[in-house]
Amino acid sequence: MPNFLPITTILVPQGTEYKAVCRGLSGITGSIPTIVAIPVGMKPLLKYLQQGQFLAPSRVLIMGICGSLSDRYTVGDIVLYEDCVYQGKRLECDRTFTAQLHSAISEKASLVKSMTSDRVISSAAEKRYLGETLAADVVDMEAFTALEFFNAAGVAVAMLRVVSDDCQHNIPDLTPAINSDGSLNPLPLAMAMLRQPLAAIRLIRGSLTALKVLQEVTNRLFSSNQ
Question: Under CATH, domain 9-170+207-224 is a member of which superfamily?
């Protein structure tokens, strides 16, 4: 098992994803990275990063959950990003760092192409359309912003996420529930869920599965470096 530490910093979207990663690291006795809870969404994240909250890290691992745009990836699948596209621009993750992570969890993780969206992609039809037209496998709301920021700073970035929703079913449109600071607003979140109860149940189940896998893969990743 190769030792690819030091990973100096892990960035994880705030809330349940951040808590899952913290739980995964809770039993690790050796040296662990700084875990930073980041805002959800492109603009809130950029503002946060520009404020320079942390010292210049040498290697940043971004973790969390994502949505699938392809039949090949379903709920609970672990993915490592090769690159990320947004509005026609494509940025690559650090190849060496990604390869080292992949070798550590290769039996579980798939190398994928990702896209970043400035809103929640809630329709299954739109997911499949985006997957086909952009040749992307998964979608999230932070990756491109983080890559652009850290690439410019000369910081190596890898991204490891777990699929929480597939491209076969709609999920509730949670975009109105995301505040301008990247936090979730409970009331609009509840309203969005109530408007589409079946989709909401599916999203909750998928998220719980993905968060459990996220916790497990975090633990496995850092246990292997003891």
Answer: Nucleoside phosphorylase domain (3.40.50.1580)
